[in-house]
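Field log, afternoon session.

UNIT: design team B
ACTIVITY: writing a sequence onto a fixed backbone
BACKBONE:
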């Protein structure tokens, strides 16, 4: 290329950059204001936009909801590892009557199995070692392992007919959390942060709490991409709150740093980043500025919400003794209620330890005890505060467990492999019909025989309750419009009140 040609092209670049840079002063400022939850320009009485009018909070991209919403927020109690529906919710006395008999091929019908049981010569049927009793107005069967859940059965909707295509943990969990078995898509909370924003500018719209169960403490791990933003701006990724001295990593200032110094540093940093944005037009720079500002505001808001010392004794008694131990499921349920009170949009709890391929009777007793009281307490606590009607609480894992034993079956112990064809979840609040059981499985507890609910159906229904039409809520990326429910999903209207 000639020197003259190089000079001409450089001149064009500079002119274009100058124009875009000046234009970005206005457009970029408005975009930044939206990202950081500070409405720098709001329309006042004289028709001009001012900094003093309008509500606080972070605005999402949806200018208006697709239809009236029933809820403001979601608390998702994800039970990682695959809880056994046959020990907890789906009572199948036939399995005890035919204990040890081989699973009929007419029931299995050629279903593919995991590598852990595909080599077994026989698939001996095994029922639960634990009793079931009828509870509530409708006489719903609930396992003796869940006495607190049994007491609130009239407040929840139990869905027994969930199913998925994924047969192993990683793709199955990823499918529930992102709508795809392949990693890289935005998580549910990220979609909601992107679409709806937050009603609290001092806390992220999407928070994550982790706990490790005592049933199988060294069970399946979890990956941060499960609460990742995928191809959405990084502003929308979930923020993990840890059970540690520093609940959010890198939030605290170094010793000797004053508030004035920090504020001055952030202002100068924002100026430099804004200059970079004007030159490059990269929207991630705006996200970076927004994250700095959010971290600054979280320095005071996070310690306040994480400190439960002011909770009365009856609350600790309601959630159980573990509620005073940071990092337990019970403590996280209490924190979830506190975050809900602060109008956090999506609160995700992950509880690990349900992957019980062997010694299931012993392990599931511990695991159920970890979660039973606190899950019921969360629903009751929200209800007594008048918050259950605009909060959707979800409880469930990525798939269920087989009706046959993995490995050796004895009089006292057995294991169960992964089972995607049918499993159970429950929901409460948020315009969901309380006190009902939806869907049925066959007498072997192996196949759905009535009202199947696919993962995408569940996701579509959750979005519906938030006022979102899952088919219209899309994001264009690499030439394709993506959505949480991919190309499937229908709203399960029969469970909506």
């Amino acid at each position: 290329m000639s020197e003259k040609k190089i000079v001409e092209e450089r001149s064009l670049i500079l002119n274009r950059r100058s124009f875009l840079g000046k234009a970005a002063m206005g457009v970029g400022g408005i975009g930044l204001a939206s990202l950081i939850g500070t409405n720098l320009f709001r329309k006042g009485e004289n028709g001009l936009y001012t900094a003093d009018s309008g509500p606080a909070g972070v605005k999402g991209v949806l200018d208006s909801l697709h239809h009236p919403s029933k809820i403001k927020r979601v608390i998702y109690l994800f039970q990682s590892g695959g809880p056994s529906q046959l020990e907890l919710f789906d009572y199948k006395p036939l399995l005890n009557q035919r204990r040890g008999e081989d699973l009929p091929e007419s029931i299995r019908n050629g279903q593919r199995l995991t590598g852990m049981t595909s080599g077994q010569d026989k698939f001996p049927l095994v029922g639960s070692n634990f009793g079931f009793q009828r509870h509530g107005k409708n006489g719903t069967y609930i396992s003796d392992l869940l006495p607190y859940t049994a007491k609130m059965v009239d407040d929840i909707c139990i869905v027994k007919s969930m199913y998925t295509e994924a047969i192993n943990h990683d793709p199955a969990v990823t499918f529930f959390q992102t709508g795809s078995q392949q990693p890289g898509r935005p998580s549910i909370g990220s979609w909601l942060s992107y679409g709806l924003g937050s009603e609290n500018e001092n806390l992220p719209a999407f928070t994550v709490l982790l706990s490790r169960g005592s049933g199988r403490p060294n069970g399946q791990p979890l990956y941060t991409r499960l609460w990742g933003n995928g191809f959405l701006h990084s502003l929308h990724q979930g923020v993990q709150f840890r059970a540690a001295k520093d609940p959010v990593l890198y939030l605290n200032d170094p010793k000797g740093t004053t508030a004035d110094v920090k504020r001055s540093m952030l202002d100068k940093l924002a100026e430099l980043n804004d200059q970079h944005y004007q030159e490059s037009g990269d929207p991630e720079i705006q996200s970076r500025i927004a994250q700095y500002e959010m971290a600054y505001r979280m320095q005071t808001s996070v310690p306040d919400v994480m400190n439960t010392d002011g909770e009365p004794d009856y609350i600790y008694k309601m959630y159980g003794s573990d509620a005073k131990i940071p990092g337990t499921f019970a403590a996280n349920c209490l924190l979830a209620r506190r975050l809900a009170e602060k109008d956090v949009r999506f609160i995700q709890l992950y509880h690990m330890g349900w992957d019980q391929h062997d010694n299931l009777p012993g392990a599931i007793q511990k695991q159920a005890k970890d979660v039973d009281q606190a899950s019921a307490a969360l629903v009751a606590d929200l209800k007594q505060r008048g918050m259950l009607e605009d909060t959707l609480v979800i409880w469930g894992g990525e798939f269920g467990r087989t009706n046959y034993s993995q490995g050796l079956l004895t009089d006292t112990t057995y294991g169960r492999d992964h089972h995607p064809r049918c499993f159970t979840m429950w929901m409460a609040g948020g315009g969901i019909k309380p006190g009902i059981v939806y869907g049925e499985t066959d007498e072997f507890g192996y196949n759905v025989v009535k009202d199947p609910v696919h993962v995408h159906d569940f996701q579509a229904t959750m979005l519906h309750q938030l006022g979102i039409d899952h088919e219209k809520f899309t994001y264009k990326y690499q030439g394709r419009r993506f959505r949480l429910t991919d190309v499937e999903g229908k709203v399960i209207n029969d469970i909506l009140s």
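LOG NOTE: The first helix runs from residue 3 to 36.
NEXT ACTIVITY: expression trials, pending approval
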